[in-house]
Write a structure and sequence with these properties.
0% strand, mainly alpha, single chain
Length: 173
């Protein structure tokens, strides 16, 4: 929960800082006093009730720059958490206590678009850890804890580079 709150609080802090910067200059003040232009393709309900106000352009800019990434990360992590919970319901032995929550946290920390790299690393990571545990420790079953942690770490360290290498630049926000 702390990671979710931090993510949203950080977006709010950036939004407030952007407002102060634009409000502090005569040159940039029109950005906080203008609605979104009519040529911007938006759903009519959003245009009418949110982006047609005096703060319309500022809200549009702030949402695209500061809120969209964390919200997509949160949705992706929530979807991954739901997947892990359904997998746990199907086969309890894949998980130790708290590993579904660890998966949610790891996915949230990976963020968007490194979440794609995270997913691509988690499942082969499970196979590799299972092979290691089978050969060197003799254990028959492997839980998802270590593969989740290792995939999150790898996506933090090399996520951006791997997204570019995979030709997925279009996912950057």
């Amino acid at each position: 929960m702390a990671a979710v709150i931090f993510s949203l609080a950080y977006a709010a802090l950036l939004t407030l800082a952007q407002y102060r910067v634009w409000a502090g200059s005569e040159f940039s003040r029109p950005f906080i006093n203008s609605p979104v232009a009519e040529v911007v393709p938006l759903p009519e309900i959003l245009r009418q009730y949110v982006f047609s106000s005096k703060l319309g352009y500022f809200l549009f800019y702030s949402f695209g720059r500061f809120w969209l990434g964390p919200l997509i990360s949160l949705l992706a992590a929530a979807a991954f958490y739901i997947f892990l919970r359904s997998l746990k319901k199907y086969q309890e032995r894949f998980f130790e206590d708290g590993e579904t929550e660890l998966g949610f946290l790891a996915a949230l920390i990976a963020g968007w678009p490194a979440f794609i790299v995270f997913l691509l690393l988690v499942f082969p990571g499970v196979v590799l850890v299972a092979i290691y545990r089978r050969l060197f420790t003799g254990e028959m079953y492997t839980t998802l804890g270590w593969p989740l942690v290792l995939a999150a770490l790898a996506s933090l360290l090399w996520g951006k580079s791997l997204i570019i290498a995979l030709g997925l630049r279009v996912l950057f926000i």
